[in-house]
Amino acid sequence: MLLGDHLVRKDVPPFVKAAREPLSYVGINSIGLRRRGFSPDKIKEIQGIYRLLFQKNHNTSQAASIIEAEMEATPERDEILEFIKNAKRGIMKGYLSNN
Description:
CATH architecture: Up-down Bundle
Radius of gyration: 13 Å
Shape: globular
Number of domains: 1
Number of strands: 4
Strand content: 5-15%
Number of helices: 4
Largest sheet: 2 strands, antiparallel
Mean pLDDT: 89
CATH class: Mainly Alpha
Low-confidence stretches: none
């Protein structure tokens, strides 16, 4: 599948922006979420989920377990976890920092 000029080899989770080659996480779509009526607190919750998933040193399974155990159950949290669980091709990678 092509997204813009990028080949999409992995699934792209809900609420995120993806860019670069290979396609990877570059943040949540906060503008789109605000336009859809998400509150600032809900956007922070989604950011926290993706911070655990993409910016900490956990593999996807570890991150999903932490998110499920430590974050309050909400429709958005559950949608993200369900997406990860059902991703047939796996999910895209987080961005790499140049530290």
